[in-house]
Amino acid sequence: EVQLVESGGGLVQPGRSLRLSCTTSGFTFGDFAMSWFRQAPGKGLEWVAFIRGKVWPGPTEYAASVKGRFTMSRDDSKSIAYLQMDSLKTEDTAVYFCSRFNDFWGQGTLVTVSS
Amino acid sequence: DILMTQTPLSSPVTLGQSASISCRSSQSLVHSDGNTYLSWLHQRPGQPPRLLINKISNRISGVPDRFSGSGAGTDFTLKISRVEAEDAGVYYCMQATQFPRTFGQGTKVEIK
Question: A-B interface: how many C-beta pairs under 8 angstroms?
Fold first, then answer.
């Protein structure tokens, strides 16, 4: 069974950093691209970042709203994807979901950026 | 960026009847590999999104055949036949042809 579990969310002050983890199981992690999405309270879905699997070489992609502040990475040996979030802004407040490509999604982790 | 526009934004539906949601993209979603990466997702309150259909019309394993997708190029439709109570929620179209990935605004399906 494919499972994705996000962790690392919480309350953080503007300008600070947070690292989210997406721990996966039930599939060969290294073979799949992974994505992060987010959903601000009461709002729609927004794509955040994308990292390719080992089969497809290429750069990691970012939404314009997070480029230069967020970094997505992966550890294929641990089957975990990460989202390092620096210089956080209040508008980054959202539930963050990781997704295997776009087919399986985790339950999400809430990030609240507030002073 | 590709703009995705869904209509309607709200759809009250009687149990057992059909619902149809339209999604229009601001440019063609045909990828250079020949595929069209248009997906439909369903989200219930407090739950993560669930992928229903990808590449316009491919239903994901476990998704009832009451759900069907159609369309081409820039115009796409999700049809829900014989609506059941569990179908309530918000439906999103999403394009994965190009970066950045973009979503429609969402269509709220309410069961009357």
Answer: 46
* Residue A110 in contact with partner chain B when CB distance is under 8 A: no
Distance CA B91, CA A111 (A): 24
Partners of B94 on chain A (C-beta within 8 Å) are: 45, 47, 102
Question: Helix, strand or coil for residue B13?
Answer: strand
Other Cβ atoms within 10 Å of A43 Cβ, number: 11
What pLDDT is recorded for position A58?
87
Q: What is the pLDDT of residue A33?
A: 96
Which residue(s) pair with A34 in the sheet? A51, A100
* Chain B environment of A37 (Cβ under 8 Å): 49
Search chain B and give the residue with CA nearest A6: B48
**Chain B nearest-CA residue for A49:** B100
C-alpha torsion sign, points B34, B6, A52, B43: negative
CA–CA dist A95, A33 (Å, integer): 20
Separation of alpha carbons B49 and B43, rounded Å: 4
From A39, A94, A67, select the one nearest B105 (Cα to Cα): A39
Q: What confidence tens digit (pLDDT) does each residue in A49-79 have?
A: 999 998 888 899 999 999 999 999 999 999 9
